[in-house]
Amino acid sequence: MSRWSVRVDPSWSVQAWRGAARLALQHRVAPDQLDWLQDGDGSLLDAPALGSLPAPAGEDAAISVPGAFVELATTCLCHRDPHRHALLYRMLWRIVHGERGLLTNPADPDVLRSMALAQAVRRDSHKMKAFVRFREVPGEADAFIAWFEPDHHIVDRVAPFFARRFAGMRWAILTPARSVQWDGQALAFGPGARQEDAPRDDAREELWRTYYANIFNPARLNTRMMQQEMPAKYWKHLPEASLLPTLVRDAGDRVQEMHDREAQAPQRRIPERHIPLRAPATANGDSLDGLRTAAAGCRRCPLWEPATQTVFGEGPRDAQVMLVGEQPGDAEDLSGHPFVGPAGQLLNRALQELGIDRSTLYLTNAVKHFRYERRGKRRIHSKPQVTDINACLPWLMAEIEQVRPKVIVCLGASAARAVFGSGFTLSRDRGQWHTLEDGTRGFATVHPSWVLRQPAGPAQEEAYQVLLRDLATLADNSSTAVSTGCTR
Ligand code: URA
Question: How far is CA 425 from the centre of its chain?
Fold first, then answer.
């Protein structure tokens, strides 16, 4: 029986593996006749390379396999297990030789093993998304580097997530085996790096620790889950890790305090405002209130200074629909509540016409401070810059994470940029449903202020109808119609 070898380079690439597997199938090389090589490996038995053979005549290059297998293989290949290429080829061989339904047999040892590998890769990818912490590059504006040590070859797989989420920043993620950079336009992959190549600490970490301490809810503390979700090996990446021992130790007392305060509190809860940035962490009863408190002291961009206050989102914490505006206007800045000025009134009119109950919605803004220019005594709205939107993004992301809406509606281009990324073009993509990484669906429409800026008369009416038609999809969408209290 002749033996052959094939090399997969890079070892996690599904294209590279597929090319090698196709070649092996065309030459009818059985799984036990093939050595799979990766990186600098040599063939143990000096088997000649399959690629040195001429392509067999008359073989059909197209091999049809179930989509689920391709997906499974793509994920499994990111695992570090040196036997994964052979395992997948054995499964492919079985699928094309009569066992097309192989994946539907969960008791099959190959299926079981491949599922376990894929699960480990998915888990590692999740950890990378959750635990990468960027640090500012000293001396460079808006440039960030993170150091991370994944268990598997997941950098290429996860990088697009960071490109979408931090589209407006320049950043790099360094890992021991591979690095990736984003320049605001494209991802570029390179070799691995050393931890010393990444900055160790930056000024934002203090703000992050304040934020974390505020959203930490002692009543929900489950140390077993916490250790499972945040294994010790990731702690070194996390600025908040230094807080954990104290937060965990004091959790019992803080829960008691919360109960005592709740018992004495007046029925209506009034969020605290003007909390200084370095306020000690106080128990706030729930995480949205904690976020609001922490955001009240936010200094991530210069907008806080001329503004009266942070205008945080409002609405039920289990709202199924979140509306994201651009930034508070003059009335919102003074009152501290979103959408209470002229644009808010126009929005109310549209919601009423559609039978959507505003009180069922969570309303917030991409930027939480009023950006304006002074003209005499008047404060004139000035569009937020990309740096303002990026600086405020962690708050919006945290709100989305807390509320977990089913649907996000972006009002205007700034909100759409914050939620859908820099590739979004309102004139092109308006009114179309999109699905975010975590499954949340959403669309963008025009901002009510844009409607108000149109010349009064038919042009304004036309613009209003655009807003109305787009928002009507909310009322028409069966998954959200009920949860918006829609009466139409
Ligand atoms: N415009 C917005 O985008 N948000 C508000 O809260 C008010 C006006």
Answer: 20
Tell which atom from ligand 1 comes closest to the C-alpha of 331.
7
pLDDT at 187: 94
In the chain, what's the furthest Cα-to-Cα distance?
Answer: 91
Distance 409 CA to ligand 1 centre (A): 13
For the CA of 366, the nearest atom of ligand 1: 3
User: What are 443's strand-pairing partners?
Assistant: 409
For the CA of 337, the nearest atom of ligand 1 = 6
CB atoms within 10 A of CB 188: 12
Numbered ranges of CATH 3.40.470.10 in the chain: 280-483
Neighbour-count burial for 370-409, b at 16+ CB within 10 Å, e otherwise: bbbeeeeeebebeebebbbbbbbbbbbebbbebbebbbbb
What distance in Å separates the CA atoms of residue 358 and residue 113, rounded to the nearest whole number?
50
pLDDT digit string, tens, across residues 329-340: 999 999 999 999
CATH of 280-483, one of 3.40.470.10, 3.20.20.190, 3.40.50.300, 3.30.420.270: 3.40.470.10
Determine the Cα–Cα distance for residues 405 and 319; give it in Å rounded to an integer.
6
- Block residue for tokens 């109960």: 259
Say how far apart CA 450 and CA 463 lie, in whole Å: 8
- In tens, the pLDDT along 55-113 reads 776 655 578 899 999 999 999 999 999 999 999 999 999 999 999 999 988 789 999 99
**How far does the centroid of ligand 1 lie from the alpha carbon of residue 412, in Å?**
10
CB hemisphere CA count around 222 (13 angstroms):
5
Instruction: Give the pTM.
Output: 0.49
